[in-house]
Amino acid sequence: MDTNRGAALAVLATGMLMTILDGSIVTVAMPVMQTDLGFTPSGLTWIVNAYLIAFGSLLLLSGRLGDLLGRRRMLIAGTVVFVAASVLAGLATGPEMLVAARFLQGAGSAMASAVSLGIVVTLYPAPAERAKAFGVFAFTGAAGASIGQVLGGVLTDLLSWHWIFLINVPIGVAALAGMRFVPADRGLGLRAGADVLGAFLVTAGLMAGIAAVVQPAWRWVTAAAAVLLLAGFVARQATARTPLMPLRVLRNRQVAGANILQILMIGAMFSFQILVALYMQRVLHYSALQTGLAMLPAALSIAVVSLVVSARVIGRIGERGALIAGLSLLVLALGWLTRLPVDARFVPDLLPVMLLIAGGGLALPAITGLGMSGARPDDAGLASGLFNTTQQLGMALGVAALSTAAASRTAGRLAAGASEAAALTAGYRLAFTVGAVLLLVSIGVAAFVLHSPAPRPEATAAGSAAVEAGPADAADAPAFSGPAPSVSARP
Fold this sequence. Notes:
Layout: H1 2-37, H2 41-44, H3 46-69, H4 71-90, H5 95-123, H6 127-158, H7 163-166, H8 168-177, H9 196-214, H10 219-239, H11 248-251, H12 253-282, H13 288-337, H14 346-356, H15 359-372, H16 380-415, H17 420-448, H18 457-469, H19 471-474
Helix pairs in contact: 1-5, 1-6, 1-8, 3-4, 3-5, 3-9, 3-16, 4-5, 4-8, 5-16, 6-13, 6-15, 9-10, 12-13, 12-15, 12-16, 12-17, 13-14, 13-15, 13-17, 16-17
């Protein structure tokens, strides 16, 4: 059974690696795609935005459908859609075809991501096992983001940008071949909660909201539409016989607090993932490949902490203590970046940041466990979709807020006569300062809102029994989920 559980975890991690790899690999090749396909400067952003809008807006619906139709079934369907969309993207001959394929990739990724970690924790219900499993996913996320930047440069330079999408095909086929190790579940059935109107309102509302964040044109119109649609969704959920998202989920202090904290934390961490890479390329004049290699120490440090240290720390001081410790390291990392010089050297100026960012290896597994500890078993997919949705919202808001702050400061310094390098550095410093403040607020939320749940032997026994019982009983076991793969986007 342990062998089968390990194989299932490997399959789920492979799927996560595929989606994260796709997100980070795209950013490196965007200039080449612009030239080959004839994208306008404003249209180029839709290579990222189409994915982000579909991914973020469909997560909640996908999570609920996973509860109703079966999480394994949703996982397989999402992987198939993602692989097929990757083929279309790799064969794209124009901007419209590539943007449509990216939208389909986002939809497939949402379908798979909304249920994947819920399956993991059904397999690993004990707190210590759960921490180790989340550590594997934290490592996969960090490794996928860094490998994607390196691989994107290699594939684009040696082959062509088409291969950054086509490489998903063998990875996806391998993941599908291993789906037999993932335990089946029967789902609750569509009659248990198929709120079609609610699904339309929340999906359209989230699409409009994310579009308002990532696309400046018509921002106020799309923002107003988002407010109206989401208000209608809340009203619908209060009156529907079978609501898509029962409002009791939001009344849970643990779930609500963890989702708020995640928006702040992910928004701040995005400043590291994106702006540090931009600083290396635009100020230090690193190539795409050099930038990816320079980011590898961050992936390695997160890997060591998430795979080796996180479970032990969580077992010793609890999930909340581990979360606060991880956030504190991240504050130090961004604080270090606020003093970046124009002519930074890697070892004294950047390497310490790459090591301190290992705090993410503590914070991500801990917030995943805390965020889902209050969810009812029959709401696991719903809570997973909500958790993944707030992660995407954090990314979108992080891009908008931090890049806007950096651009504004840069423009001001240029107007005052500063050099381009000095002006860019000043803008990045301000963005890192804003990110550090967001992390400090996150520490306050963790300290005063969240609490570490006490281990429940009966839950552990129930979860283990579900694994032993097989498909018929697995659907009734406690299940939780966590964050989806992050999507890299250049502001």
